[in-house]
Description:
A two-stranded antiparallel sheet has the order 1-2. Helix 1 (2-27) packs across helix 12. The protein has one domain. The chain is mostly helical. It has helices spanning 2-27, 30-51, 73-93, 101-107, 112-130, 142-169, 171-200, 221-227, 250-267, 272-282, 287-310, 318-338, 344-372, 380-411, 413-430, and strands at 234-237, 246-249. It contains 15 helices and two strands. 73% of the residues lie in helices and 2% in strands.
Amino acid sequence: MRKIYDGLMMASMAYARWDYETSMNIIKNRKKVLILLLLALPVLIPTLAWAGGNALPTLLGGKAAYAPAYYSPEVFFISIIVGLCAGLITGCIGAGGGFILTPALMSVGVRGILAVGTDLFHIFAKAIMGTTVHKKLGNVSVGLAVAFVAGSLLGVVGGGAIQRAIYAADPMLSDTFISIVYTLLLGFLGTYAMTDFLKSRKGPAKGSGGDAHGGPTGMTNLAVKLQSVNIPPMIAFDHDLTPGGRKISGWIVAFGGAIVGFVAAILGVGGGFITFPMFIYAFGVSSFTTVGTDILQIIFTAGFASITQYAIYGYVFYTLAMGLLLGSLLGIQVGAVTTKVVKGVYIRGFYAVTILAGFINRLFALPKYLREMEYITWSKELCAALDKAGYYVFFVIIGIFSLWVINTFIRNLGTLRAEAVQQAQGGAVSG
């Protein structure tokens, strides 16, 4: 279990680095910023019109266009705040804050399937606007990437079909299903993150450092067995890191991709949190090679899932996706800069509390769903009280963390500016 958690955290940090680089590529490019603003106008105009007392047009956020969730300006502005908070978490902690997006959207009244589709589309939109595939992705193995993405696309089709089938059968069952999955996932992550934080206060954990295998050449028994399976085509990788390289069957890699694509389509995330432990502990791939393949699969998986499994069926809330994108672009920059003046141990603590807040949010929402489907007989008042408690716990904790980051950023503006000037002068001298 500990190895799985370590793999999840490595994936989260790799995704955070990609998210930051992608966001900065957008912000630093005037053309991309202009395109983003132009895309935002169709969202802002009807929102302002509604605020002035006029009815919303049916084709821009109206109930007819987005039947699963009724649009309101409040939801749009909340999506900006949610995106901002997720960006602050990603930038400040250096680990993905995407786990809070779907629970947060569901908390403000967005149907689960729409939250999943919108989250995936937000990831894809950011990727196509800001990603530049270059050497920073790592030692990408083309063979691994092709086999894995081929499998992930098949998995996406299966996961998307199941999501839509559940929603068609009963929208409340769909929300319940998504909430249960997130409760289990966030409960696992939050527990280990908090344990990791408490241990880190006493000093570095035993065995910390080194590569993900626990040694320069070590592999798990599972990885050794899978690499011994000789079913063509065999894919060679890690030639630069291991004498003679390593090989694994493309069918095994594709099957792993199918699992990742399936889960990504179900949860509305890129799937990288599964890719890392799978590649490192099951396939025996180095963390260096895994980084590049993971980022590539996120782009293809999120894009294919959001368009073919959700958007064409009406399950992408473009207004919310725009709000998430606008908020996250700002938040991730502020969060990343703040890390220069904050001790890492406190940041890890906030991350653990944030994940546990998401866990509580979805756990406390479950009784309401189960009661409406007549699976439990708890009183309506009790279920509503639990749901409201989960809502406030979640947003109060996220809000406190966000305000703390913003306040820390503002109080240290002088120090941060001086450091930026010093770095610029140093770069000029070295140049």
